[in-house]
C-alpha cells in the first residue's frame, strides 16, 4: 500500500521519458524495490531501481508533503537514468557529472510537468542553483570533470 504513490510516479515518468527522448523503454518491466537499511538512498540498474525504504514508501496518514515531493523527485531522477546512464552510458567515471547532471535536469523537467503543484523549478532556483553557485565560489571547489585513471581514484569524485 505504501508503494502505490511511488509506483504511480514511476509509471508516469517512464511514459514521460518515452515521449521526451523519443525512445520507448525497451524492457518489458522496470522493478522498484524498497530495501530496509539499503546502503545508498537509491540506485538504478537496467530495469531495476533499488531504494532505501524510507526514501520511497508513502503513507498519506503519516508522511509529510515534503517527503512526498522528495519521493517524486527521487523517482524522476532514477527513472531518467534508464535513458541517460543505462541506455546511453558514459565512457568513463570522470564523466559521472554529466550522467548525474542530466538526470537532475530531467528530474526537475519531468516532475515539474507531471506534478506542477510541486513547483520544482522554484525549488531548483531557490535551493539547488544558489547552493551550487555558493559551492563553486569556494576556494576548495574543483572542476566538475576530474581525470581518474584507476578505480581507487573514484572515491574522491
From TrEMBL:
InterPro entries the record matches: Peptidase_M1 (IPR001930), Peptidase_M1_aminopeptidases (IPR050344), Peptidase_M1_dom (IPR014782), Peptidase_M4/M1_CTD_sf (IPR027268)
Keyword Hydrolase: yes
Keywords: Aminopeptidase, Glycoprotein, GPI-anchor, Hydrolase, Lipoprotein, Membrane, Metal-binding, Metalloprotease, Protease, Zinc
Single GO molecular function: metalloaminopeptidase activity
GO biological process entries: peptide catabolic process; proteolysis
Localization of this protein: Cell membrane
Membrane topology: Lipid-anchor; GPI-anchor
Protein's name in the database: Puromycin-sensitive aminopeptidase
Organism from which the protein derives: Pseudolycoriella hygida
Amino acid at each position: 500500500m505504501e508503494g502505490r504513490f511511488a509506483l504511480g510516479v514511476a509509471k508516469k515518468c517512464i511514459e514521460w521519458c518515452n515521449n521526451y527522448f523519443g525512445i520507448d523503454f525497451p524492457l518489458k518491466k522496470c522493478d522498484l524495490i524498497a530495501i530496509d537499511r539499503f546502503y545508498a538512498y537509491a540506485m538504478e540498474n537496467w530495469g531495476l531501481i533499488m531504494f532505501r525504504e524510507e526514501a520511497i514508501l508513502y503513507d498519506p496518514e503519516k508522511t509529510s508533503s515534503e517527503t512526498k515531493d522528495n519521493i517524486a523527485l527521487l523517482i524522476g531522477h532514477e527513472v531518467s537514468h534508464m535513458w541517460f546512464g543505462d541506455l546511453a552510458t558514459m565512457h568513463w567515471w570522470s564523466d559521472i557529472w554529466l550522467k548525474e547532471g542530466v538526470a537532475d535536469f530531467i528530474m526537475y523537467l519531468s516532475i515539474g510537468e507531471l506534478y506542477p503543484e510541486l513547483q520544482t523549478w522554484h525549488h531548483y532556483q531557490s535551493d539547488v542553483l544558489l547552493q551550487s553557485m555558493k559551492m563553486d565560489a569556494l576556494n576548495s571547489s574543483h572542476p566538475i570533470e576530474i581525470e581518474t585513471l584507476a578505480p581507487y581514484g573514484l572515491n574522491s569524485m
